[in-house]
Write a structure and sequence with these properties.
The complex is a heterodimer of chains A (469) and B (60).
Chain A: H1 11-19, H2 25-43, E1 46-49, H3 51-66, E2 78-82, H4 109-116, E3 120-125, E4 143-144, E5 147-151, H5 157-164, E6 170-175, H6 181-187, E7 190-193, E8 213-218, H7 221-231, E9 261-265, H8 266-269, H9 276-291, E10 295-299, H10 307-322, H11 324-329, H12 336-347, H13 350-371, E11 376-380, H14 410-414, E12 419-426, E13 432-438, H15 444-457
Parallel strand pairs in A: 2-3, 2-6, 9-10, 9-11
Antiparallel strand pairs in A: 1-3, 4-5, 6-8, 7-8, 7-12, 11-13, 12-13
Chain B: H1 6-15, H2 24-40
The chains are: A alpha/beta (469), B mainly alpha (60).
Chain lengths: 469, 60
């Protein structure tokens, strides 16, 4: 195979070629590093490229595989990870200037797990500052591979741009209010927010402790399945991780969805915040699910409409607490959006935070009650395709405080449920649209099953942006 | 609840050891008032009885 074609393979296809020794991990790693060197100036996906470490890991993988010691589907596969995760001996900025020179001496568990699975770490990807806002970057803003004038979506913006631009085989993001599914939908990728407690948060810079999750941003559902399989599982360093065995998520693929029950949440589908062209695309995708044999019903989740402000309160108060020392001593070292968010979160009256947590519990009950009758809930990941890159606008009224009113991801964060965005078409501007599929806690296999069945019936996941060729 | 003024915001800031000045003061005022107004408007049935449990504990 021509080396320059390797980066366009799915991670799963590359994994198979590495296992059969038709492609070497060194060859694959060099191919990705070459692309990063020549193209990332357009995408701003990486903050740090770990070239020497990557090549050393690839050589080690090559030796092991040649000796008959193949560790599994991620062995020798080049990956990128969000710079929100601590990495031993590698700068870990959190997208901030405050930690611009911070080099930890220990890996986050998700990075340690990737290394244990034999994956090759290409580098650390760009993100919004400390991953607590949706748009604001302290380094350059990651560009959307489908239109370089538009934003990749955040906070895992660099992981979205890198994966969409084929600057890695698969990647990790972190999702507190939608930060995996947001770049996934805008970049035409698969993004999975796992169940809270499935993946360790040890060594992950915090947002909201009870909502932070680490998961894959990938080009196919199978790629997301093998990436999640490598990072999931109990971690004694994170006492909130589940001790249940991690299943082989690929076993769920190819089963079809005959007989599965899917609920379409009408409040999200019919929201004024969904553009008409996006709604049409998502409706077509849901029709495909019905044609594949799923039972599809419209259902009502009235509290889904208040997920935004409830999340907004939690996403202001908890980061303000986490950053309290720096807020007091170094507030000018933050960018605009973080500065306003952290100051606002510092002065929210406690009774409002308490109320938000109580509303959250009612939302969760409503979601779980709906899921007692359905295998999955579906609606658009976002009501709008990728928007132009812009400077952080000042807040000039109460009406201009939210930059993400059209993002519909937060419902599942509040409910501690898994949710996945899969590409399902393009809006009238030719920008990707994502179908969001949410399920019961620890039902990732069902989500992969549905997403994979949809991929087998469509070709959206095979489309490649022109800027990537 | 009526919107908080800039003086209110500064008083809240002083209570937690923060001296909030312009240009952030106006933006924080709008942000906080928008958030409080949104939460004031959400009063679903059962709110008084429910506990503020933040998570689902994973199975042991």
């Amino acid at each position: 195979m021509d080396k320059s074609e390797i980066p366009f393979l799915s991670a799963s296809a590359l994994s198979g070629l590495i296992a059969s020794r038709e492609v070497s991990p060194v060859e694959a790693t060099e191919a990705y590093l070459d692309r990063i060197d020549s193209l990332d100036f357009k995408f701003n996906a990486y903050l740090t490229v770990t070239r020497d470490m990557a090549l050393a890991a690839a050589q080690e993988a090559e030796r092991e595989i040649a000796a008959g010691n193949h560790r599994g589907p991620m062995h020798g596969v080049p990956v990128a990870v969000k710079d929100q995760f601590l990495s031993a001996g590698v700068r870990s900025t959190g997208g901030s200037r405050i930690l611009g020179d911070y080099v930890p001496d220990e890996d986050a568990t998700v990075i340690a797990n990737l290394k244990q699975a034999g994956a090759v770490l290409l580098g650390k990807t760009n993100l919004t500052e400390f991953a607590i806002t949706g748009f604001s970057h302290r380094y350059s803003t990651p560009r959307n591979p489908w239109d370089l004038n538009t934003y990749a979506g955040g906070s895992s913006s660099g992981s979205g741009a890198a994966t969409g631009a084929s600057l890695c085989a698969t990647s990790l993001g972190e999702d507190t209010g939608g930060s995996i599914r947001f770049p996934a939908t805008w970049c035409g990728l698969v993004g999975l927010r796992p169940t809270w407690g499935l993946v360790s948060r040890y060594g992950v810079m915090r947002g909201v402790w009870s909502m932070d999750t680490v998961g894959p941003i990938s080009r196919t559902v199978e790629d997301a399945a093998i990436t999640l399989g490598a990072i999931a599982g109990y971690d004694p360093k994170d006492p909130h991780t589940s001790a249940s065995p991690v299943p082989d998520y690929r076993a769920a693929l190819g089963q079809g969805i005959e007989g599965l029950r899917i609920g379409v949440v009408t409040e999200q589908m019919e929201s004024d915040l969904v553009d008409a062209d996006v709604r049409t695309v998502v409706e077509r995708a849901i029709t495909v699910l019905g044609e594949l044999g799923a039972s599809v019903d419209e259902i009502s989740l009235p509290l889904s409409t208040v997920a935004g402000p409830v999340t907004g309160a939690l996403l202001a108060v908890e980061p303000a607490g986490n950053h309290s020392n720096w807020v007091h001593e170094r507030i000018d070292d933050y960018g605009h959006d973080d500065r306003i968010l952290l100051l606002t979160g510092s002065v929210i009256p406690a009774n409002y935070y308490h109320k938000a947590q109580k509303i959250r519990e009612l939302i969760r009950r409503q979601v779980l009650d709906a899921l007692s009758g359905y295998d999955a809930l579906v609606f658009p990941t976002a009501g709008r395709g990728a928007q132009p890159v812009e400077d952080d606008p000042p807040v000039t009224s109460k009406e201009t405080t939210s930059r993400l009113p059209f993002l519909f991801t937060r419902l599942f964060n509040l409910a501690s449920c898994p949710a996945m965005s899969v590409p399902c078409g393009f809006d009238d501007r030719g920008m990707p649209v994502g179908l969001q599929i949410g399920g019961k806690p620890f039902s990732e296999e069902t989500l992969f099953r549905i997403g994979n069945a949809y991929e087998r019936a469509t070709d959206w996941h095979t489309r490649r942006p022109a800027a990537v060729a | 609840m009526a919107d908080l003024s800039k003086e209110d915001i500064q008083a809240l800031g002083r209570a937690v050891g923060l001296d909030i000045q312009e240009p952030e003061l106006t933006e924080v005022m709008y942000s906080l008032n928008a958030l409080l107004e949104s939460l004031d408007a959400i009063n679903p049935p059962g709110l008084d009885e429910v506990e503020p449990l933040p998570i689902i504990l994973p199975p042991a």
